[in-house]
Design brief:
- The structure is a homodimer.
- Chain A is α/β, with parallel strands linked by helices and about 350 residues long.
- Chain A folds into three domains: about 45 residues, lambda repressor-like DNA-binding domains (434 Repressor (Amino-terminal Domain)), CATH 1.10.260; about 130 residues, Response regulator (Rossmann fold); about 150 residues, Rossmann fold.
- Chain A is built from 13 helices and twelve strands.
- A six-stranded parallel β-sheet of chain A has the order 2-1-3-4-5-11, with helices on both faces. In chain A, strands 7-6-8-9-10-12 form a six-stranded mixed β-sheet, sandwiched between helices.
- In chain A, helix 6 runs parallel beside helix 13, helix 9 runs parallel beside helix 10 and helix 11 crosses helix 12.
- Chain A is elongated.
- The relative contact order of chain A is 0.12.
- The model of chain A has no long low-confidence stretch (mean pLDDT about 90).
- At the A-B interface, helix 4, helix 6 and strand 2 of A face helix 4, helix 6 and strand 2 of B.
- Strand 2 of chain A pairs antiparallel with strand 2 of chain B.
- Chain A binds a DNA duplex (30 and 30 nucleotides) through helix 2 and helix 4.
DNA sequence: ATATAATTCCAAAGCGCTTTGACACCTCAC
DNA sequence: GTGAGGTGTCAAAGCGCTTTGGAATTATAT
């Protein structure tokens, strides 16, 4: 069943049917209803290839998926993808992926762009001075980045959260509670969000004349095991930290295991604030000691990015080019005043 | 630059240029050369949408990517994807993915099929009695599965390795070396390959009147941490196993850590055979005690699957519908005769 | 009543490719 | 010299949709 047959069936022209289907105003509501009804009955679906040829739009956005463990290996990316996918399905868009050696992301991106299979590109897992940026800019194809690239001029379209602000605020809260010895459970050191979160923490500490010792910062992929191992190390330090900042609730999961095994009480002996990406299976309020968090939904970011990308392709883009989402600081039970015996140790 | 312009530039018809480009025989070699040369100079690339409309082929294969941690979260899938991608790029094919809630894989698959964006479907991570199979068969769209579905009639196109045979052979080798107490570090219990590998082991044991105790089989996602934890448990058993079969070199990595920490010598106190997917960063010969393995390249499987899928779409498919690759059993240093003190414990 | 504007629809022209059916042209055999 | 059989090329017809530029019909203003 194609347009021609459908229109003959209805005794209308292809034009009218096409317009009825695509929501153009110059068609009588009654006729539109009739068309929609016929579509339902016949199961007509417009041919994508023809649509694409006629409009010049493929209805697809491309992304390169590095086939290395680090990048796509975590639940965070899955959650984000879910958001992207949800919105894409809603608009009948689809994703074209290009699996790529991590050493050749730039090349893969270029190949994807010139392949003619995609209308726009999406990139994530930005690093400092990310080499993909200049290439994307040279490409004359719309793109959108999730995150930013530390050290690069921010003159590209992005959606990011205020990582620096989030960890700055979190650190301030802990400072106000009297903590002076901090540890950081962070994501991989080269990633932009990890850089900024660390900066946020360091900035807050600096205001009080404090610093973050080398051995109190851990950079790993964000699994609970890594959270546990790193925290175990922190807890064995001579001046062990009383406050931990954590780049993910997944890391926190492991961290808390380590805290418990050390016989310490979360929220009393040691305070912890985690960044909460709002992963559905890991709600901070359901932890045995509910977690104080900085919150920003990763899925929502996925949805938003899909919206913007799709709007750009459809050329009806009233969206801002650059968005920086604030995070919420939500205080629960995992933070408390610094224990008395730790009050004047370390610090200034 | 399009075909028309290119052909005018060359003083040829569109027909001839098109045929020259697509390798048809009825064009003079000299003309073909001339065309190819012009393509190089002008940078002409055929319009995908037009090609697609004219031929009815999208040049793309679809796969649904479950957005749950387990499925795509491991290096194994990445390695496989690399193979797929490598071959796809070679043929100028691409992948359309549909992120999907794991509970709705079947629906996602259907949506992908009727979206009109793909020529064929690919599925992996098969489970026993996999519900995707009947739906795929009802679809009148070519598909190919990596692995098989235990319990389903094997009347669908697949590429699998002989998991049962691999672990049967591995177990036989260890039995010949006198081992009687076995443990199994396996993948998630519901996955087909895990089921079959366990069956292979159990079958070999049964021939000697042995069995695999409940607490000597571990089913987890295949990370080194899980390998370590599970092995630690094995080693604390009263009748601890002297032989370990391991579904991945990644699991083996952790297992060996546990063995070392327990002060045991690999290949002497305890023997281990791992399945080797030929992950580039994890070569069994580079382990401090080189690993005895059953080997089958996951990347090669990816390449092969892409080849078959592409050939099917292009209708020039001389490939068999079903392939079962044998694995190689490669003996290195991680296997040895059962230690004397363990010789007559346990078993029959 | 007639002129003007909105409303609703249509025929036909693309979009850029592949493929069919024909047509020259050039052997080669008889 | 003619007919058969290749070879190399082309014009034109799709593929199934969107969109342009009218045209017919109806509503509104004069």
């Amino acid at each position: 069943m194609n347009l021609k047959q459908l229109s003959e069936l209805l005794g209308l022209s292809q034009t009218t049917v096409s317009r009825a289907l695509n929501g153009y105003p110059e068609v009588n509501e009654a006729t539109r209803e009739r068309v929609l009804q016929a579509v339902k009955e016949t199961g007509y679906r417009p041919n994508k290839a023809a649509q694409r040829l006629a409009t010049g739009k493929a209805g697809s956005i491309g992304l390169v998926m590095p086939t290395a463990p680090d990048h796509y290996s975590d639940v965070h990316f899955g959650e984000f993808l879910t958001g992207l996918g949800e919105e894409a399905v809603r608009h009948d868009f689809h994703f074209v992926i290009m699996p790529a050696d991590p050493n050749d992301e730039v090349g893969a991106l270029r190949r994807l762009a010139i392949s003619g299979n995609v209308d726009a590109l999406f990139v994530a897992y930005m690093r400092g001075h990310d080499p993909r940026l200049p290439m994307l800019k040279s490409l004359s194809m719309p793109f959108l980045v999730h995150g930013r690239s530390f050290g690069s001029e921010p003159d590209y379209p992005y959606l990011d959260i205020d990582n620096e602000g989030a960890f700055y605020d979190a650190a301030r809260l802990l400072l106000q509670l009297g903590h002076t010895r901090f540890a950081l459970l962070n994501g991989p050191a080269h990633l932009d969000f990890a850089i900024r979160r660390k900066n946020g923490l360091v900035a807050a500490l600096a205001e009080r004349g404090l610093d973050l010792p080398e051995d109190c910062a851990s950079h790993t992929t964000m699994t609970d095991e890594h959270g546990q191992f790193a925290t175990e190390r922190f807890l064995q330090l001579p001046d062990r930290p009383t406050a931990i900042l954590c780049s993910s609730t997944v890391l926190a999961l492991g961290a808390i295991r380590a805290v418990n095994q050390a016989g310490l009480k979360l929220g009393e002996d040691i305070s912890l604030i985690a960044h909460d990406d709002v992963l559905p299976h890991l709600r901070p309020e359901n932890f045995s000691v509910p977690l104080t968090t900085t919150r920003s939904s990763l899925r929502a970011a996925g949805i938003r990015i899909a919206q913007r990308l799709i709007a750009t392709v459809k050329q009806d883009a009233p969206y801002p080019e650059q968005e920086l989402w604030k995070t919420e600081l939500i205080v629960r039970a995992s933070t408390g005043p610094v224990p008395r015996q730790d009050q004047n140790l370390g610090g200034v």
